[in-house]
């Protein structure tokens, strides 16, 4: 049966003919009272059922029968307008000052929020352009209720992990689908640095100056039309288009600085004098506790040092043991950082003649250069965009959206976190200089690394070039007054070229006499979408909008990698110059997705709304037994404020709406390796398997032909309120349940492998979202608005692949508990008399022990915040505008795995310490300390994993501040300028944290709540000017 339906639909798309009648084609544009396009307005020929809606530019085209000369324009939230038919109509609709006219772009169409039954949030152009990041998607940080963003790296162009209404999978994809101008694009992180904290985001290839709006789709009504790709939500990016009217030219220039953020007082590195004091104290403690059996006594005896156990005596021991310069004072954090520089220039030309048959165009060029505050890390980007639209006849419209970009990134060095400059800055001693007495690089450091040398001209290299082309042509046929056919093609071609070099100036590279690596990745995503859209109004009260469509998508991926070592000289770093081959690997695959979908919307008198969608997806990612799946949604909305019995509330209640939805979405990002059996002809590190010189292959993966999509069922209920034309409130409750989660199921070792993938697990998310926006003052010369968002999310693991939980060193995945639940040995503090560390002995917590191995693991919290949101305010006074945004998070826990090293109390006693250790350490009997007694060689388990390093993740961040001034038009027109604005934008100004927090920025910690030496988010301040001609 389904095959017949597909055949009928396919034939329909191919064999569509034109339907004509005795009509006159009338075109025009609908604007609001401030001259902005009105999107989604209903346009009906009075006295008939013939109607259409305005597009994203406010334009419309409608066939008017002979004898009919009046059009009726209506939209909830706008005053109804009747206008006589004229050539090239220009209609103005007045707003009732509510938020009902906000546009929701779903990717397959455009609708007004008033008619939308789902849950979605829109971020506008002003918010997007005021941000200073190469990755445009970071403009969503703190602006969308229910969207949690983890930005774990301040690297220019680095990705952001986004979770919309929680994490809906454990082992499969967790990121939303991105759609640009109706075409899905790829946002997956690829390349050789993707697991080293130096990822490159493909989204950084888009320029924020080209973005009109970003819409975040959340619930089933909003997302199920995307079927198997929508479990984690959908983010729709709409770019700017040309508008009818005379050509305009806009130029924007930004210049600014990027500084390292203010370091939390607990996390500052100590200077030379404090370092010597702590190191000598550790040595003295070693002797006092262990006496002749201490390691320091052993060295004294063997080498007959005869040094007294005093601060001066142990200082001499310190110098003898390490050969460090006791007079040197290096702040390694200062040495690897600088004042960065940001510059961006944008130029665009847009316009279109007033004739409805004339083309409309938008052409832009943008250049961005960002030198990071960390030495050796920078990004430059060149982007070109051209959007074109034309309707040469009343039947045909066509257009083209294109984006070309080149992004070059320098990441300083490869080798993972251990080669990262921040990591090394927190490992090195202040007593070790950057250069030795002869002026050469000093490698007599804690571990042989010198992070400054690594970033010198002959140091490590890690460079990448991203080339991206996105092309999307379309053709629209207006078959009759109510029926439209749209065909759209999309090509997203992404090419990544990477080069890495481990130089002679670091231990790993020195041992191999340098190691070079080259990698190329080519990813092509092709999409074709065909839709039929039927829009009709019956008897002026029944509004119907039906969309049916077919979509095909093909993904092609190819990777190649080559490495070699043993260079003749250090500066000839190309791989071809190396003598010893290292690794060589190639990898390629193709994925296909074919889909058929239906979406229907109905409303009666703009009061009662119903919507439904259905999608049938087939994907080559899955085995032949489970290749196809269906997804659907139902939504309803009731505008109570339009009822007659609510007439008495009209003076203060502008809108009151209740909406609900339920449906299913899928997750196809389970990896092709789970469905097919894989054999490898090489060992991934060498050039191939062989036995006695005979090549061969080995099994890598069992296949599972029954592996299928993960499915997420989504329920949402919400309320929208508008009061006194001032206050707008939205509240939502949601419940998501993911079933058929993919897990590795253990199998017998006699098979040669230890597991295979199967659909077994279940995970649930539930939460509440709330936003309120108040236009407190709304006068011609003075405006003031305030907005608050808050969201909660609680997740629970419902089912795992086995009856046993998945337990790690400090966290556990267990049925009935939240994801990433922390479970570890619980720290009970410091023994005031001895300075020894204490842990709770049993699960009840009524006994303590100094023996780490006897302590029992306990549940000690989870990283999921109880409350997440933002506070924003905006002032406008005559030509001035000021906008400020605060982000906050309450209730989550952070485990500082880096603190096990930064706050070590022995082992590397000659390394560095933080201010927290210096200020809170135990020194004498009776001290109520937070840090145990310092020791030198003879350490206990105080540095082992326990809740000693567990912290509150609460914070309040001054996320952004934007101040601008529009120069008077009478002043600038003398210079032939139509508009001019000067501005300053600042981001990440300051973060207020819990008093016990030790780190750079709690908002930069990943979803699992584990903190490492994360590249901190920079504080940026840019000054700019925008000119219009």
TrEMBL record:
Keyword terms: Cell outer membrane, Membrane, Receptor, Signal, TonB box, Transmembrane, Transmembrane beta strand, Transport
The keyword Transmembrane helix is assigned to this record: no
Signal peptide positions on this chain: 1-21
One Pfam family from the record: Plug
Record-linked SUPFAM superfamilies: Carboxypeptidase regulatory domain-like (SSF49464), Porins (SSF56935)
Main location, first listed in the record: membrane
Ranges of residues in domain TonB-dependent receptor plug: 115-234
Subcellular location(s) of the protein: Cell outer membrane
GO biological process: siderophore transmembrane transport
InterPro entries assigned: Beta-barrel_TonB, Beta-barrel_TonB_sf, CarboxyPept-like_regulatory, Plug_dom, Plug_dom_sf, TonB-dep_OMP_SusC/RagA, TonB-dep_OMP_SusC/RagA_CS, TonB-dep_rcpt-like
Entry GO MF terms: siderophore uptake transmembrane transporter activity
Domain TonB-dependent receptor-like beta-barrel, first and last residues per copy: 431-989
GO cellular component: cell outer membrane
Protein's membrane topology: Multi-pass membrane protein
Similarity annotation: Belongs to the TonB-dependent receptor family.
Name of the protein: TonB-dependent receptor plug domain-containing protein
